[in-house]
Amino acid sequence: MNDDLHRPVNDKEPPVPEEYEELPVPEEYEELPVLVEEEEPPGPIKHEGPPGPVKQEEPPLPVINRPPRKARRKSRKLLLVTLAALAVLVAVSWLLNQPIGQQAINTTGLGSHQAAPTISPPTPTPAPAIPTPIVKVRGTPVGPNTLVAGALILLNPGIVRQGTSMGVNGSGFDPRATVDLAVKQRKSGPGQVVAFVRTDKYGNFYENLIVPATLSSGTFFVEARERGSTNVAQAAGVIAGGAPQLKLGTQVGKPGDMIVVTVHGFSPDETIKVYWNTMSGDPVATLQADGGGSIGQAPVQVPYGAAGVNTFLFVGAKSQSMVAATFYLLSLYPTVKLSSYSIKADHQMSFAGAGFGPGERVLVFLNTAIGQPVAVIQTTQHGTFANAGGLVVPFGLKGKQTLIFLGEESRASVAVNWTVQPYMPTAQASTYGGLPGTTVSFYAVTPTTMQALW
């Protein structure tokens, strides 16, 4: 026989399978087993009959590779988490869309188609009326406004000082109406209209007022009266007491200057004493407050003192309220003019000066300020003097001299130099020649007289 008949079929080189691209496996087929036909080991081909041509085997089917088990677990977990999140979102959306309070529990035992019996609620018993308390500030009632219902004003702040700002808030008036604002010391009376406002479309307004300086400490009233209507409202405020207000016309000057002062906040009709730096001793001025405890304008003369910062003290004689104000005192620079700056002895000299203290004595010294003055001069209320002195120049003075002028209270001083001229007399004979026995006369000439010596 031919040896080829007994040669195994697998002696031939097996056919090379074609390579296929790996396709993703759908999730629904992950768990299905993949049937792979097991190949039988090659063996000799048995021939039952006459030998014939050998039949070749067809190439095997491609094997589908399954994803790893870890990846499959992760995919299942992700799917479960997604489903759970969707279920939670649906439940929350359903709860939010349900109306609150409509799903009440039926505790009557009746079906939904049966009507529950109607029970009338008990009639409430009216509570007894409680009287509205009335607050008093320093004996003046400041309770709720009873002038006209609906109109109301409020003050902010309610405790103020003279000259400060205060807000007035109103409501309950007619829309687009004009309302006059008046300030009154007493609840009854016309008061002083200080401003007017216009309400908005709701009948409200807000306005800032300056508290008049004429108000004394204690309670005052603000009245809002609508023009052409009966809408009126009042509110009470309080002027803070115990701290008067003081204003100086100027805070810089020299002794003798007149300054204007304005004072508010003292007791009505009380005497106000003005002190300089200290309350000991006599006051430098005395003022009188009006019925509102104020002084509109009053002149005060600046007293003597040390140059620099000083203090005015205003003290109420009855209330003992005190207010202070600083004042910068300037130094005095007096000037003096002599009637003659060159003069002979036994002649009279006069002076004119300005810039000293008001009403003070000026001491005149010769060459030194120690010892007794040679003259004393009285100044006017403006610190001036003219044609004063009448000093007679003594014969013992010769050459340059100095006069020192010193204010007794202000201690302001000035020195003036002058000169004493020497005498130069001349003599003349009646004749410059003659016989024995001739009488000769002589005449001596001085600046003031001409006389015969013998």
Structural class: mainly beta
Output the CATH topology of the domain at 138-239.
Answer: Immunoglobulin-like
CATH class of the domain at 138-239: Mainly Beta
Q: Please provide the count of β strands.
A: 29
Tally the helices: what do you get?
1
Radius of gyration: 62 Å
Please state roughly what percent of the residues sit in beta strands, choosing from under 5%, 5-15%, 15-25%, 25-35%, 35-45% or over 45%.
35-45%
SSE arrangement, N to C: HEEEEEEEEEEEEEEEEEEEEEEEEEEEEE
Helix content: under 10%
CATH architecture annotation of the domain at 138-239 = Sandwich
Determine the N-to-C terminus distance.
214 Å
Strand order of the largest sheet: 4-10-9-6-7
Low-confidence parts, pLDDT < 50 over ≥5 residues? 1-6, 34-38, 100-105, 110-116, 449-454
Profile the largest sheet.
5 strands, mixed
Cα shape: elongated
Query: CATH homologous superfamily of the domain at 138-239, by name?
Result: Macroglobulin (MG2) domain
Averaged pLDDT: 77
Furnish the topology, listing elements before pairings.
Blueprint: H1 69-96, E1 136-137, E2 140-141, E3 152-156, E4 159-160, E5 165-171, E6 178-184, E7 192-198, E8 205-210, E9 218-226, E10 232-239, E11 245-248, E12 252-253, E13 258-264, E14 271-276, E15 285-288, E16 295-301, E17 308-316, E18 322-329, E19 335-338, E20 342-344, E21 348-354, E22 361-366, E23 375-378, E24 385-392, E25 399-407, E26 413-421, E27 426-429, E28 442-445, E29 450-452
Parallel strand pairs: 4-10, 12-18, 20-26
Antiparallel strand pairs: 1-2, 3-5, 5-8, 6-7, 6-9, 9-10, 11-13, 13-16, 14-15, 14-17, 17-18, 19-21, 21-24, 22-23, 22-25, 25-26, 27-28, 28-29
